[in-house]
Amino acid sequence: MSAKSIAISFIVAFLSNGLSSQSFVSKTTEHNTKPIAMKDETTGVDTQEKAFSVFPAANELFCDDIRPQIQNIIDRHGMEEWRYGVLTNEMHGHLGIYAIIGMKMGLRALDELSADHDHIEIISYAGIQPPISCLNDGLQVSTGATLGHGLIRISDEEIKRPEATFIHDGKNITLRLKRSSWEKISQDVRAAIEMHGALTDPYWKLIRKHAIQYWAEWDRNEIFEIVKE
Ligand SMILES: [Zn+2]
Questions:
Q1: What pTM does this model have?
Q2: For burial by CB atoms within 10 Å, which of 78, 126, 148, 188 has the most?
């Protein structure tokens, strides 16, 4: 089996069984919109020093297709989502839909649990096969719950899905991408494969276009459902 046909079979398997639903157990939690600490509210800069003293957002530093969306993303979703979106894409190696969704899901979880970056644990149900497992990269970047810190693990449950449980300070919450959003993504991926063939250059170009659009347009406070007991 060639690498291409293995990759195609991953995608086909995902499209055919990825939308099956199942019920999961989690504790409910109060909604809390408290901003994440360790962050300068004016600049959005994390005050725990790492590499950047100020996070870049100047047009000329970014790719042509991202430039028109920079201000839009910052205005709609905040400096923090801009920052973690950029870092997710750089780390992930391409501008992918599920990586962006994972980044948004992680930030939503920090809000819900009033948790700081680096102070949360994650159990992901997204598996280890792309494209859905790309979620795991966005989750790690936006929350700081990295493999390196031993704060994220991937559930071996059979049904892979864009869902994760977040644990902080004795509380937990499980977030899942809403079915309507998941179906939209699945349709877009399927259409890209039909139009260009899986994992071809034009396929990646189209996926990138969708990922930028979702980053700019999809609100992390709306696209996830809280999975209750
Ligand atoms: Zn990816």
A1: 0.80
A2: 126
Task: Using CB atoms within 10 Å of the CB of residue 162, give its burial: 0 to 12 exposed, 13 to 18 middle, 19+ buried.
Answer: buried
Q: Residue 43 falls within a domain, yes or no?
A: no
35 in a domain, yes or no?
no
pLDDT tens figures, 58-101:
999 999 999 999 999 999 999 999 999 999 999 999 999 999 99
Answer yes or no: is 159 within a domain: yes
CB under 8 Å to 180, separation ≥6 — which residues?
none
Tokens of 170: 């004795």
CA of 47 to the centre of ligand 1 (A): 29
- Give me the CATH number covering residue 188: 3.30.1330.130
Q: Which domain holds residue 186?
A: 63-226
Q: In this structure, which residues have their CB less than 5 angstroms from ion ligand 1?
A: 96, 134
Q: DSSP of 85-134, one letter per residue?
A: HHHHHHHHSS--HHHHHHHHHHHHHHHHHT--TT--EEEE-S-SSTTGGG
Is residue 86 in some structural domain?
yes
Residue 138 Cα to ligand 1 middle (Å): 10
